[in-house]
Amino acid sequence: MLECTPFSSLSPLYDLGDLRAGTLEVLVASRPEDIEASQKLRYRVFFEERGARPTAEMKAARRDMDVFDAVCDHLLVVEHQSDRSVRVVGTYRLLRYEMMKKIGHFYTAGEYDIGHIEQYNGQILEVGRSCVDPEYRNRAVMQLLWRGIGAYVARFDIGLMFGCASFQGTDPTEHAVALAYLHHYHLAPEELRLVALKERYIDMNLLPKDAIDPREAFASLPALIKGYLRLGGYVGLGAVIDPEYNTTDVSIVVKTDLVTDKYFQRYGKSGMTDNG
Amino acid sequence: MIALKAALKLTLLLLWIGFWYLPVWVAKKWGKIRWRDAMVRLCYIGILRIIGVRLKVTGQIGKMRPLLLVTNHLSYLDICLLGAAAPVKFAPKSEIAKWPVIGSICRMCNAIFIDRRPEKIKEMTALVRSALGRGELICLFPEGTTGDGLHMLPFKSGFFSLAEEKIDGHDLTVQPAAIIYTRIRRLPIDTTQWPLIAWYGDMHLFPHLWQLLKIGSIDAELAFLAPVTSAEYGDRKQMANYCQQAIGESGKK
Known about the structure:
A: Aminopeptidase, 25% strand
């Protein structure tokens, strides 16, 4: 049942430093069989667990796959087994601008207008297809995944990360509180704002701001979205329904050089400009 | 694995500080103050390297003397950042003199211990003024204590009364500087991670340091901002306000 590959030849594509916690390790996959194992994990999570509808091809292979897999970097959390094999327990798909050019567009461009951030002055990185094996949904794996992203961001000098994050199910009203909360409290400034494509645009402003308890709403969010927000991430304008994956998607932007303004903003409101 | 690395770093940290103890003491004894300052600074730079802090300095320290630096304050790590950037002296509360290790490090760097009892204010002010008069670069933390990383505390204008009178016939220049922690492990600092850096309330030093060593990678910025004199801001309240706002503005991007 488990996708196991021999340990000895596990050679990461880039050196991100030694990122381990116990028997877990995070790395960028270099071998086709590791990428295949991550596609199988994605299939188990997206299709078997969350009820997405696979294509016949995917169903036959029991792998979640698309054209982006060939050009993306696959960040994997693996567990080293006692028989020197490894098991892929978490995965994240990363697409840099240069790699994207081989295809011509980012994945997110199928759901959102990303014009604003393509103008961004600096390296941009699309992140997506994140999933963790249900048996491994714990702090250690999530932390390792974030550390891997941190190392990757540093390695390629990424200034901006963006992508889609999902709520399960295709009925946005089921997630009215969460969507409205994100819209009112975490909407990106205009220059960083992704806007849902016109024909797929679903309004996230489903409830007035004063009808939401922000603490409760934050607590109800999926773990991944919470993670982005804690890093100072923003959401774009409008949600998009993805019937194939049985999800309601929102867009996320995280500026990696974002200084936590909140600390400073309490005393810096008036127009002091002569501070050098 | 992480714990092992942290233990290694802790050992290295103690060895490194211990290594400088004697040369600094000798330099001080022989009156080679410049050597002493250079060695202390080197020691701070090494400490940052061991903890894994990458420091980016922007702006410059004013050339005029007497000069007083004021900054926001989050953690003991602030001391290392400032110490690595310039030969700065600090004025900790006198209780710290009695702390093991830290107390003797402070003495080694010629810290001016401040007795905060109200009846001692005049004496303490005179002590700081005379050090400023000698041209020493002194840094004060006008928040009076460390904050939690989520909010800067209001600056106490009392600290700025130093600038109300001339020192040896010269105006005291006050330069605000912002201490900004930007990243942990190369990612923006998650709001739940602040207590890893900020050291406040009744947190114990050792467990906090241990957590800090386990992080292994922190990015920090130190921004020296436009200096002002008491002539420009006669009132200490206005001066405190200016410094706090300048620091607040520079921390936002």
